[in-house]
Amino acid sequence: MIQLKGLSKAFQTKTQTVTAVDNVSLSIDEGEIFGIIGYSGAGKSTLVRLLNKLETATSGEVTIEGESITSLKGQSLRSARQEIGMVFQHFNLLWSRTVAENIAFPLEIAKQSKQERNKRVQELVNLVGLEGREDSYPSQLSGGQKQRVGIARALANNPKVLLCDEATSALDPKTTDSILALLTDINKKLGLTIVLITHEMHVIRKICHRVAVMENGRVVEEGPVLQVFRKP
Ligand code: ADP
Ligand code: ADP
């Protein structure tokens, strides 16, 4: 589904070269929940930015369903980006728009008609359990509800992959559990591939099938969660 082959990203600063991602090769299967864990500075954010092409790799390649996204530009890059739904730590909602309008936003950009948008928004509201909150503003929602909006918006254009970047790091433990349960539910219901980036081991333990551990830009361990986090 997603293949990273010898992926590297180096940043040149005034005094040195920082290799944020260092020769990473990974294979993420269709329909799995794949976790990427590492301490601050391990290279996780840079990896995310390589996956959604906000950053260009120094070397190596990312392919999604066999198609290389590494050298895409213009319209083909924009359509490749639509294949990846992004969920953020701080939700990145539009604060002057309602729940329904936030979820409809990517559909507007994709030039869907009002009628199509309304139908899709209702499906997504039901999927994430926000019935009755369609006309609320983000400031009127709890953190967990805001993240449900973030997830619905990320799913609006039917992406092939949901990329969650520290999606529960701003939430309390109980809310974290409810968002993880929602992600598991979406994974099962839609068979959607989910890539989950976090520094929290309990998040990985709770919902991931496989995990890669990053340290200093490298993947130092990879495999089924039960195997990698085996209790001694
Ligand atoms: P994480 O998300 O795991 O905290 P990052 O990907 O943010 O890790 O950072 C990995 C390393 O790359 C760090 O040493 C960081 O300082 C460095 N880095 C990230 N972005 C840049 C940049 N734009 N310029 C220079 N160094 C960077
Ligand atoms: P929370 O109640 O979840 O803490 P905040 O109001 O603190 O939400 O804002 C969270 C993030 O949203 C911050 O990064 C902030 O900069 C951004 N933000 C706040 N207001 C707006 C706005 N009107 N438009 C766009 N972004 C905003």
From TrEMBL:
This is Methionine import ATP-binding protein MetN. Keywords: Amino-acid transport, ATP-binding, Cell membrane, Membrane, Nucleotide-binding, Translocase, Transport. One of its GO terms (biological process) is amino acid transport. GO terms for cellular component: plasma membrane. It comes from the Bacteria. Residues 2-232 form the ABC transporter domain. Belongs to the ABC transporter superfamily. The keyword Cell membrane applies. The chain holds residues 1 to 232 of 339 of the full protein. GO terms for molecular function: ATP binding; ATP hydrolysis activity. Signal peptide: none annotated.
